[in-house]
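Protein modeling request. Please complete all fields; requests missing the sequence field cannot be processed.
Requester role: graduate student
Desired output: 3D structure, token encoding
Chains: 1
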Amino acid sequence: MRVFITGGTGLIGSAVVAELLGNGHTVLALARSDASARAAEAAGAESLRGGLADLNVLRAGAAAADGVIHLAFGHDFSSAGAVAKSVAEEGAALAALGEELIGSDRPFVTCSGTPSVPGRASTEADAVPPEGPVGGRGQSVTAVLGLAARGVRSTAVRLPRTVHNQGTGGFAGLLTTIARQSGVSGYPGDGAQRWPAVHALDAAVLFRLALEQAGPGTAWHAVADEGDPVRDIAAVIGRRLGVPVQSVPAQTYGPLGAIFSADQPSASTHTRQALGWEPKHPSLLEDLENIQP
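Delivered output (293 residues):
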């Protein structure tokens, strides 16, 4: 297939591009800067200049492709307003992409986070929340899945709180950044809350499988580690950076404080059985050993 991808030069996207190219597909990557365009082309993809706000560019990319994978998202978590702006921008982008694909039966793979379910690990059958700090993303993904009734093979790959590679990425990466800046490897509360995780190279395989095989209106979990206690994550970060490990107020994490404090393990049993996906790369705690002091 010729695949149009947004976010194709990020941590996850670059792995997805390599996975697609390595399995016989061609890639047209949205590139919001000259540097991104060069990176996409160096990886073997074609580039299309534009950002998520350029809706006509998105429509053109989708029109020129046999399938679409959406990964781009603004990662400004400095304030609730900044997060809301990114969520709204993504929602408009997904709507534009979806409109272009209606009636085509082409695959449209988007992403979201795994949901949090009190008292147990979430599964693919659980709905993503339409409310909360990033509830707008849940609404947008639900709308994409609804396109299954309008001739789009729409699917969602739900990503865990940390998608990592070589010790960087995801919420664990944010903990590392904050620890470098503050001199403390912190965790909210008692740190018993669990975060699921997956290696970026394993997640990339699932995006390809969803593109190739998944039925319309389906959701999948890119979860390798069902849930590591955040204090264990912080302990590895602290040891690698040589800084103390301790509990810190949830407000330390700004608009993400509530999410960071939540227990949110997640399972991927159905995904593994239905699509034959099997993670093979290092776990989060193993991969964090690559953090450089």
